[in-house]
Amino acid sequence: MGLLQNLPIRRKMIVIIMTTTGIALLIACTGFLLYELNAYRRNVEQELSTIAHLIAESSGPALAFDDERTGSEVLAALRGDPRVITGVIYDREGRVFSSYLRQGAGDAIPPRPPPQGTEVARNSVTLTSAVLLNGEQVGTLYLKSTMEEVSVRVKTYGGIFAVVLLLSSLVALLVSSRLQRLISAPVMGLAETASRVSEEKITPSEPPNKRVTRWGCWWTASMR
């Protein structure tokens, strides 16, 4: 703030306008980024829930008839979604019935089914749900989906926001350089008028009408 006080009034106004514009843009971009990331997480959860519903319907008969081959074929359909890295079907006793692990994922298959529900971590979403057949639970399904795309989106949006911030700052600088004259010019004129009035020696020997005229001119100039 001390540096700002030493600047001329024209530069002060430019700095204030630029700072206000930058802060407003930064807040807007941050809000948009948080909204997009939250929307992406919700979308991943919904898609994972849909996949779990389809697999649970297809794997129910396989669990009922202890058909591991069919269970493996059902989970093999997960290869079509590169985001899903782990899929496990458990039997009634909680033992692993069939499993799928994306190649190169480096993830471990849980030996027992986790508690049912959805869990959102920093880079993944896991979903555990019951496998029903005729209203009876015959097993448990576990799915894990990666959210590596979040990092890609953050980098992409960060680059876009940086360009937008730079261009907006340049536009704000050009506009503020012109608009500040509308305010700084009258203020500078008022300061010059006040300086001239303070430098003049008004003595009692001067006629009253002359003193009134001078102070009237100063008052008129200050009100412009």
Strand content: 15-25%
From the spread of the alpha carbons, the general shape counts as: rod-shaped
Strand order of the largest sheet: 2-1-5-4-3
Order of helix and strand elements from N to C terminus: HHHEEEEEHH
Fraction in helix: 55-70%
Structural class category: alpha+beta
User: Radius of gyration over alpha carbons?
Assistant: 36 Å
Fourth CATH level, the homologous superfamily: PAS domain
Q: In CATH terms, what is the architecture? A: 2-Layer Sandwich
First-to-last CA distance: 30 Å
CATH class: Alpha Beta
Name the features.
single chain; 224 residues; alpha+beta; Beta-Lactamase; five-stranded antiparallel sheet; disordered C terminus
How is this fold's topology laid out?
Blueprint (H helix, E strand, L loop, with lengths): L1 H4 L3 H56 L3 H9 L7 E7 L5 E6 L15 E4 L3 E10 L2 E11 L2 H51 L8 H15 L2
Helix pairs in contact: 2-3, 2-4, 4-5
